[in-house]
Design a protein that fits this description.
The chain has helices at about 20-35, 50-60, 85-90, 95-105, 125-135, 165-175, 190-200, 235-245, 260-270, 305-315, 335-340, 370-380, 395, 400-410, and strands at about 1-5, 15, 40, 65-70, 70-75, 110, 135-140, 145-150, 155-160, 180-185, 205, 215, 225-230, 250-255, 270-275, 280-285, 295, 320-325, 345-350, 350-355, 365, 385-390, 410-415. By secondary structure, it is of the alpha+beta class. The strands form 6 sheets. A 4-stranded mixed beta sheet has the order 21-22-1-23. Strands 2-14-16-15 form a 4-stranded mixed beta sheet. About 55% of the residues are buried. The structure holds uridine-diphosphate-N-acetylglucosamine. Uridine-diphosphate-N-acetylglucosamine binds near residues 124, 163, 166, 304 and 328.
C-alpha cells in the first residue's frame, strides 16, 4: 500500500505549472471515438483516469499511442465493437461519454454503470432522457446501460438541472442526429466549451456552448484534427488554496485566470492577495485569514470540486464560516477524516460550519475520494507534525506529479510503500 507522508507547517513558495483539465480530457478523449479518424490531443494530464480511458478505447478496437506523456494520438477508425470493457469502464465516471460517442457513431452502445467518486447516489437519468428524446431506446440490465437507435433525430431537450455529464453526453450523441438539437438549461463549465470546440474543429456544428442553450446541427460524419486541452481549474485552485493555508506565496502558471474567478473572489474576501496576469495568478496572504461563507454551484458558481479544499482552509481562518454543498447530496464524508487532524467542522445535511482558528495536528488518515484526498494533503501541509495519508490511488486518478509539484514549492512530502 502506498501512503503520502507530510511534515507540515512549511510555507510553500514558488511557481507551479498547471496541467491540462482532467474533466475536459475525460470528455474529449471519448469524443474522439465519434470521429472515426485520427485525432491528436495535446496537454492531456498524465493521470490514471486518462490512461484507463485510453485503454478502454483500445479495447473497443481503436489505436491509442502516447506521442509523449501529454499527447495522445487516437485512431478511432478501427473500432469494431460497441461494447465497453467492464473493468476499465467501471473504474471512472467519464466512461459514460462512450455511450454518447458510440451511440452517435454506430447507433448502439453498451457501457457498464460508471464508477468514480462516491458523493452519494449519482444517477445518469438525464443522460438517458436526452438519448431517448433523440430517438434512442435505453435499457439498464445486469449493471449495463444499453442504448440503441435506428436513427437519431434532433430534439429540444430540457435538463432538470445543468448536469455537466448529461450536457456533454447529449451534445456528443446529437452531433450525428438529423436536424437540430437544442439543449436547454445546459451546464456552462469550461470543459463543456472545450469539448464543443474540439468537436467543432473536427466538423461538428455546435453553437452556444458556455451558455445555457446549446444548439447542435447534425452532421453525417466527423473528420480528424489536433487539439490542445484547457488548463485544469481544480488543480489550479488546489495550489491557490495551498498558498493560503501554508502562509506561502505561490504563482500558478499556464492557467486561464477567468476560470478561477469564484475562488479568487473568496480568497480576496479571506484577506489574500491574488495578483492576476494573462496566464497566471499569484496568491499570498495579506494578514490574518478571515472566514467567509461558500456555497457550491454550477459554473460560474463556486465549484463543488474545490469544496473539500476550501472547507479545510476555512477551518484555519478566524471566525465562523458556513459551507453549503448544493450540487451533490453527500459530499462531506471526508470531514470525519479531516477531524482526525483536528478540524472543527460540524455537518448538518448539506451544510458544514466551522468556528475557525483550527491548528491541524498530524495524524494517520485515509482519502475517501479524489478531492477529499487533496483536502487532506492541504491540511497535512498546514499541520504540526507528521501526517500520513492512505488510499492515495484516489489522488492518482486526478493529480499529476502531486508530491513532486508540492516538493518543488518547498513542502516536505514523500510517498512511501508499506506492507499491510
Ligand atoms: C462532473 C465532474 C465532477 C464534478 C461534477 C459537477 C466529470 C467526469 N466529473 O460529474 O468532477 O464534481 O461534474 O461539476 O466531469 N444528476 C442527476 N441525473 C443525471 C446527472 C446528474 O440527478 O443524469 C445530478 C447529480 O446527482 C448531481 C448533479 O446532477 O447532484 C450534478 O451532476 P453532474 O453535473 O452530472 O456531475 P457529473 O457529470 O457526475
Amino acid at each position: 500500500m502506498e501512503y503520502i507522508v507530510i511534515n507540515g507547517q512549511k510555507p510553500l513558495k514558488g511557481c507551479v505549472q498547471i496541467g491540462g483539465a482532467k474533466n475536459a480530457a475525460l470528455a474529449i478523449v471519448p469524443a474522439a471515438v465519434a470521429s472515426g479518424g485520427v485525432c491528436i490531443i495535446d496537454n492531456l494530464p498524465d493521470i490514471n483516469d486518462v490512461h484507463n480511458l485510453a485503454n478502454a478505447i483500445e479495447k473497443l478496437g481503436a489505436t491509442c499511442r502516447f506521442l509523449d506523456k501529454h499527447t495522445l494520438e487516437i485512431n478511432a477508425g478501427s473500432i469494431n465493437t460497441h461494447i465497453a470493457d467492464y473493468d476499465l469502464a467501471t473504474k471512472m465516471r467519464a466512461s459514460y461519454y462512450l455511450l454518447g460517442a458510440l451511440l452517435g457513431r454506430f447507433g448502439e452502445a453498451h457501457v457498464p454503470m460508471p464508477g468514480g467518486c462516491d458523493f452519494g447516489y449519482r444517477p445518469i437519468d438525464y443522460h438517458l432522457k436526452g438519448f431517448e428524446a433523440l430517438g434512442a431506446k435505453c435499457v439498464l440490465e445486469h449493471g449495463w446501460v444499453k442504448v440503441s437507435a435506428e436513427k437519431l433525430i434532433g430534439a429540444e431537450i430540457y435538463l432538470d438541472c445543468p448536469s455537466v455529464g448529461a450536457t456533454i453526453n447529449i451534445m456528443i450523441a446529437a452531433v450525428f442526429a438529423e436536424g437540430t438539437t437544442q439543449i436547454e438549461n445546459a451546464a456552462r463549465e469550461p470543459h463543456i466549451v472545450d469539448t464543443a470546440n474540439f468537436l467543432n474543429m473536427i466538423g461538428a456544428k455546435i453553437s452556444g456552448a458556455g451558455t445555457d442553450i446549446i444548439k447542435i446541427n447534425g452532421v453525417e460524419s466527423l473528420g480528424c484534427g489536433r487539439y490542445t486541452i484547457i488548463p485544469d481549474q481544480i488543480e489550479t485552485g488546489t495550489y491557490m488554496i495551498a498558498a493560503a493555508i501554508t502562509d506561502g506565496d505561490i504563482t500558478v502558471k499556464n492557467i486561464i485566470p477567468k476560470h478561477m474567478d469564484p475562488l479568487t473572489a473568496k480568497l480576496r474576501d479571506m484577506n489574500c492577495q491574488v495578483e492576476e496576469g494573462p496566464d497566471y495568478l499569484r496568491v499570498y496572504r495579506d494578514g490574518e485569514l478571515k472566514g467567509c461563507d461558500v456555497r457550491t454551484s454550477y459554473y460560474p458558481g463556486f465549484p463543488t470540486d474545490l469544496q473539500p479544499q476550501m472547507a479545510t482552509l476555512l477551518c484555519t481562518a478566524s471566525g465562523t464560516s458556513v459551507v453549503t454543498e448544493t450540487v451533490f447530496n453527500n459530499r462531506f464524508q471526508y470531514i470525519n477524516e479531516l477531524k482526525r487532524l483536528g478540524a472543527n467542522l460540524k455537518v448538518d445535511g448539506r451544510t458544514a460550519v466551522t468556528k475557525g482558528h483550527c491548528v491541524f495536528t498530524g495524524a494517520q488518515v485515509g482519502a475517501t475520494d479524489l478531492r477529499s484526498g487533496a483536502a487532506l494533503v492541504l491540511a497535512g501541509l498546514a499541520a504540526r507534525g507528521e501526517t500520513t495519508i492512505g488510499n492515495v490511488y484516489h489522488l492518482d486518478r486526478g493529480y499529476e506529479c502531486f508530491e513532486s509539484k508540492f516538493r518543488s514549492l518547498g513542502a516536505d512530502i514523500t510517498r512511501i510503500e508499506r506492507d499491510e
